[in-house]
Amino acid sequence: MKTTAAVLYEVGKPLEIEELDLAAPGDHEVLVRWTHTGLCHSDLHIQQGDMGAWLPIVLGHEGAGVVEEVGPGVTRVKPGDHFVASFIPTCGTCHWCSIGRQNLCDMGAYTMRGHLPSGNWPLSGKAGRYGAMCMVGAFSTYGVIHESSAVRIEPEFPLQVAALVGCGVPTGWGSAVNSADVRPGDTVVIYGIGGIGINAVQGAHLAGARHVIAVDPTTLKRDTAMSLGATHAVATAEEALALSKQLTRGVGAASAIITVGNVTANVVDAAFEVVSKSGTVVITALAPFADKTITLSGTEAVLWRKTIRGSLFGDCNPTTDIPRLLELYRDGQLKLDELLTRTYTLDQINEGYEHMLAGELIRGVIVHEH
Question: How far apart (Å, rounded) are the C-alpha atoms in residues 171 and 175?
């Protein structure tokens, strides 16, 4: 069959809208109709060359839709099911899945190779084989994914907000709840209030933090943070440092979470300084792979028992946490509708990313037309 997709042919160039051929699903593969896809900064890391991937590639990894057809052996979903894509697949049997670390599933090794675990390349066109980001490729009207990337959800949940629970929501929420282990009464500082940072704000608030300090130079993002659980919002790291000291009588923050668009040594330094003795710095943001963004005093880390840790997918287990987050949304404890700043058609995708880079979005969503 045919599908219309946004394709990256060359690093640094805009996405191009193309009609591609899509193969039928093979063993343990699923044909899906994408209905909504979030605009996530991780796709920009591919477009800007910060992370290497097969080119040409169909980007998009934060998506939701409807299962159209299943291949032989598929047990996780059936035709007609609504689903959210997990941008890291969950095989359920590797070492990491078996010990409850689905975000580290060994099948994730295929995410930037372009093809599915079987070696199949479902997408093809004028340039030959086309990859799919994270084995998802949700900037397309249709796709073929492995069943381990599909998390079935109840049809009561609106797909335009369910799509956000495929990446930005669990990554941010889990960065606070799981990775930073925010406890009631904590003071937490969050650097960068985009689609991930705003959910770190929500996670810290739900976990019972007394003070949640949002740091972002953009007024829209500071205001949104204040409406979704932040107790304070400032424009600079210097303001956050002074405020955290004031609020804690000089002790410092229990944790700092870095969710900026591109992590730098400066923001890591600021986060390391803002946390107290025994404090934790969580790095969720990405940068060019070869960049050295952590240049800290090991002695200070030892003497003050400070911890630096990375966080992938918010240390969540997608098969259980994606439905759980949607249940929190249904119960009114997690805000999702409020995250959606603007919707776009697929042919407006480059405009959407321009708006993101200009700081005009919390989350933009592509609404696919069929």
Answer: 6
